[in-house]
């Protein structure tokens, strides 16, 4: 097996949390995508990093926007994850936001109202690397649900669940 194939096969063994990353374009239109490459970067100051395909709509506009949100998905959000991953035929662009309980934040970025947690971020940097961008966010606000939840994870090309 060549290195690229081995890399892909190996990364499929890594379970990841599932998030929807959202922003508002310069004209105020919402856009977003399903992301599994999301990680904390620092507690002081609170910051995180998101891997974004540069060919995605979010990847195209991220240099023009001041803020974005990272919405952690629960198992009940699997349909939302499918829509924002582009897996539902005929649902594109702003029509994706017809799926889920989306609410505007003070920054004008939509957040998932019933998410187990969401983070509002100021764009603090973008690192270009091959096909992807590493989006660095300075966290400006956090909402964490007090309800017990099961989280949506992605493993071996499938969505699954994990509970606390």
Please explain how this structure is put together.
The longest helix is centred in the N-terminal third of the chain and has 9 residues. A seven-stranded antiparallel β-sheet has the order 3-2-6-9-10-5-4. Strands 1-11-12 form a three-stranded antiparallel β-sheet, with no helix packed on it. The chain has a two-stranded antiparallel ribbon with strand order 7-8. The relative contact order is 0.23. The protein has 164 residues and is mainly beta. The protein contains three helices and twelve strands, in the order H-E-E-E-E-E-H-E-H-E-E-E-E-E-E. A hairpin with a 2-residue loop joins strand 9 and strand 10. It is 13% helix and 46% strand.
Helix and strand topology:
Layout: H1 3-11, E1 16-17, E2 19-24, E3 30-35, E4 38-42, E5 47-53, H2 57-61, E6 67-72, H3 78-84, E7 102-104, E8 110-112, E9 117-129, E10 132-144, E11 150-155, E12 158-163
Antiparallel strand pairs: 1-11, 2-3, 2-6, 4-5, 5-10, 6-9, 7-8, 9-10, 11-12
């Amino acid at each position: 097996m060549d290195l690229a194939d081995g890399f892909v096969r190996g990364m499929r063994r890594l379970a990841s949390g599932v998030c929807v990353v959202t922003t508002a374009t310069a004209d105020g239109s919402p856009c977003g995508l399903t992301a599994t490459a999301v990680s904390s970067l620092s507690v002081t100051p609170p910051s995180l990093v998101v891997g974004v395909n540069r060919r995605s709509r979010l990847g195209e506009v991220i240099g023009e926007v001041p803020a974005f949100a990272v919405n952690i998905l629960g198992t009940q959000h699997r349909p939302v994850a499918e829509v924002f991953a582009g897996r539902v035929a005929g649902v594109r662009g702003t029509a994706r936001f017809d799926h889920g309980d989306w609410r505007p934040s003070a920054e004008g970025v939509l957040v998932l109202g019933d998410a187990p947690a969401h983070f509002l971020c100021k764009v603090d940097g973008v690192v270009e690397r091959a096909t992807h961008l590493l989006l660095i966010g300075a966290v400006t606000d956090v909402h964490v649900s007090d309800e017990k939840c099961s989280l949506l994870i992605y493993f071996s090309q499938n969505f699954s669940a994990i509970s606390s």
